[in-house]
Amino acid sequence: MQKPVWRKNKKYKFNSRSGGAPACQTSASMTRTDLKALLSPAERRLFARLDTAQKIQDFLDRLPANFELDGDTMMSPRAMLKAGVAHCAEAAIFAAAALRFHGHPAWLLDIRARPTDHDHVVTLFKQRELWGAISKTNHAILRWRDPIYKTPRELAMSYAHEYCLPSGRKSMLAFSRPFSLDRYAPKEWVTTTDDLHWLVDALDESPHIPLAPPRSLRARRRSAKIELIAQEHVEWPDPRKKKARKNSPPLVPAKVGTQRRRAKLKGPARFPLSRE
């Protein structure tokens, strides 16, 4: 399927300005005070309002999808707010920053799919010792997870059934361990104007856990037709599809009085994002 994700199993170059990933720092040095000092007054007011994971998810749900019309992006939270759009990885990084602002750990979870599908990134959080996830997506799947899971693995497994290709073939392969952003200074990933390709490279190269043995993965049942149809519905229409329809030539009936033929869909509509 096409989920709103940020890349199609591809590597990105390290940030040329920094020469790669920035040096790690201890989590103790990444305090709320450090982060607040970097934010503008407007950013601090916004972050202050987003004081629960639920409020962060509501904010991201109202934010339009980033279709990357001008090419690949991996915006920092500051750049994302300025652009007013986000894809899944950008939203996940923003959510991690908002949680960190309020003194919570900043964790990401990478969900790895088959090379012909797209990866997805969510933000992990804990409430009452149970795990939940904040997720930006354009479909009714791969979304928010309530904090009801005992372990990150249990949460990650909840995405397995709905992760599939247009053919219905299940495509989720593995998931990362919780990836902490507390190791990086806030100025390197929250307020920088540079793209964060180095960060998602680090996430992609971090330890991943296989979903199941290869034999079990190959034996998975394909998604039913009604499940694929349900994935056609999107929150934010892709402007490229609207432009393509506008520029396409009108259909001409083969005979006078006959109805125009409609092209039959071979699979559900997708949200390419140039890649989720």
Distance, first to last CA = 9 Å
Outline type: globular
Number of helices: 11
Give the biggest beta sheet: 7 strands, antiparallel
Which residues sit in consecutive blocks of at least 5 with pLDDT less than 50? 1-19, 26-30, 251-276
What is the helix content?
25-40%
The rounded Rg comes to 20 Å
Beta-strand residue percentage: 5-15%
Q: What is the β-strand count?
A: 7
Features:
31% helix; single chain; 276 residues; alpha+beta; disordered C terminus
Structure description:
There is one protein chain. The protein is 31% helix and 13% strand. It is of the alpha+beta class. The protein has a domain at 27-218. Residues 1-19, 26-30 and 251-276 have low confidence and may be disordered.
In short:
With 276 residues, the protein is an alpha+beta fold. The chain is built from 11 helices and 7 strands.
Write the layout of secondary structure elements.
Blueprint lengths: L31 H7 L2 H9 L3 H10 L14 H7 L4 H14 L5 E7 L6 E8 L2 E5 L10 E5 L2 H6 L14 E5 L2 E2 L5 H4 L7 H9 L2 E3 L3 H5 L6 H6 L8 H9 L29
Antiparallel strand pairs: 1-2, 1-5, 1-6, 2-3, 3-4, 5-7
